[in-house]
Specification:
The chain folds into 2 domains: about 5-195, Up-down Bundle (Growth Hormone, Chain: A); about 225-410, Growth Hormone, Chain: A (Up-down Bundle). It has 15 helices and no strands. The two termini are about 25 Å apart. It is about 75% helix and about 0% strand.
Length: about 425
């Protein structure tokens, strides 16, 4: 078995444990914590906003560390940081303590793990990079799908503090030892080429994919060169605008459905379907990204995001809610998988973490603003329609931007083979 699949497995675990600080999972803690501690929803959500912004500021450093030292050290420390954050959340008594604990967890998840995991996978795959990335990022959805029922059970049977503590133990005994023992920096360190070819042997090959470079001739982009390309800024702006709409829609999806008269039981079922389609969708989009130029697939995801915003706004039945769950689960999976894939295809492996990390502050800032913008519009107009129609329009803009983001050309003076 090619050792790259071990890296994918550790990446899946990293994303699953990081998902303990995902917005979808956070909702399971809101009601019991607010009731027990007497804190407002605003107080609880403030910790999420602070952590999201700080994650954006942390990502450039995390990306540089991954490029310089490899994902092994970074993911091991990230696992320890997740465990510490979860244990802090279990013992909070004051709002500032929760802001510290939960904010730290968001920083580790969004600022470190979401950069380190796809970067580590991209180091090991070129021809099969799509499916490998999809499998690794699938851990995010699996973490949400498996943890929410556990949290609800523990919160009812014991306490919400026990739920945080159990998640902390899971994080502590899974990610740090797996990352420390199993992660290796790149296939060349084991005498391999990406996708499993033996370097220099008769079976060696130069893996290539539609719309991507071959493993042997992959260009070596550095940050200063990447930032001079028009493509860098088009991709970054498209992803940041998509993050703005994604956060706004997923945060307000249940209130919209309830306001439209959809029964509460149907909304709960919708969340389960959403997570299921999110899990499977990453692999499906990954296969698609191996067969067509990735920017076309990513544009399709953004177009579907516009459709999803309008569909949610018009949904008044349980069947409509389930249809939205299927569509939007696939959209979220496609956005995460193909965005990671296109950066790796366009800019290579040499400085991938640094290149992706430097744009993370803008992406995280807009991600934090999406739910707030929708709430302000609802407070001012009494309707979700203007906000969600605005989200649809922004998704159309993202699709246009990514279609315009053609593969960049490395300046002739900087052309070189990948590093040995």
């Amino acid at each position: 078995m090619y050792y790259g699949w071990v890296i994918v497995g550790v990446g899946t675990v990293a994303m699953a444990t990081g998902a303990f600080f995902a917005t979808s999972l956070f909702g399971a803690f809101l009601t019991p914590m607010s009731r027990d501690l007497g804190w407002s929803m605003t107080t609880l959500n403030a910790a999420q906003g602070v952590g999201t912004v700080l994650a954006g500021l942390t990502a450039p450093l995390a990306g540089r560390l991954v490029d310089r030292h490899g994902a092994r050290v970074v993911l091991t420390l990230a696992g320890l940081g997740l465990a510490l954050s979860l244990f802090l959340c279990a013992g909070v008594q004051e709002p500032w303590q929760f802001c510290l604990g939960y904010g730290l967890g968001r920083v580790v998840f969004q600022g470190v793990i979401q950069i380190a995991t796809p970067t580590a996978v991209a180091m090991w795959f070129v021809r099969r990079r799509g499916r490998a990335t999809g499998l690794a990022l699938m851990g995010n959805a699996l973490g949400v799908a498996l943890s929410v029922p556990l949290i609800q059970y523990l919160a009812d049977a014991v306490s919400w503090r026990a739920a945080w503590a159990v998640l902390g133990m899971v994080a502590l005994v899974t990610l740090p030892p797996l990352a420390a023992l199993l992660v290796r920096r790149r296939p060349e360190d084991l005498g391999l080429q990406p996708d499993g070819a033996v370097d220099g042997g008769r079976g060696s090959r130069q893996p290539a994919r539609v719309g991507g470079s071959s493993g042997a001739s992959e260009p070596v982009w550095r940050l200063h060169l990447a930032m001079r390309t028009r493509t860098f800024w088009l991709l970054l702006l498209a992803a940041a605008l998509s993050a703005f709409t994604l956060a706004g829609i997923t945060t307000h999806q249940i209130p919209v459905l309830l306001r439209n008269g959809v029964p509460p039981a149907a909304t709960a079922t919708m969340v389960s379907f959403y997570a299921l389609c999110w899990s499977a969708g990453g692999v499906l989009w990954g296969y698609l990204g191996e067969r067509v130029p990735v920017r076309f697939g990513l544009a399709l995801v953004y177009l579907a995001g516009a459709l999803g915003a309008v569909l949610l706004l018009l949904t008044t039945t349980a069947a409509g809610a389930l249809l939205f769950a299927v569509l939007y689960g696939l959209i979220v999976a496609g956005g995460a998988t193909l965005d990671a894939l296109i950066w790796a295809d366009y800019y290579g492996r040499a400085s991938l973490g640094t290149i992706r990390g430097v744009g993370r502050p803008l992406l995280m800032a807009l991600n934090a603003l999406g739910p707030i913008a929708a709430a302000v519009v609802v407070d001012q107009t009494g309707s979700y329609a203007p906000a969600f129609l605005g989200f649809a329009a922004i998704n159309l803009l993202s699709a246009a931007l990514v279609l315009a983001a053609r593969p960049p050309r490395l300046p002739a003076v900087a052309c070189a083979s990948r590093p040995s």
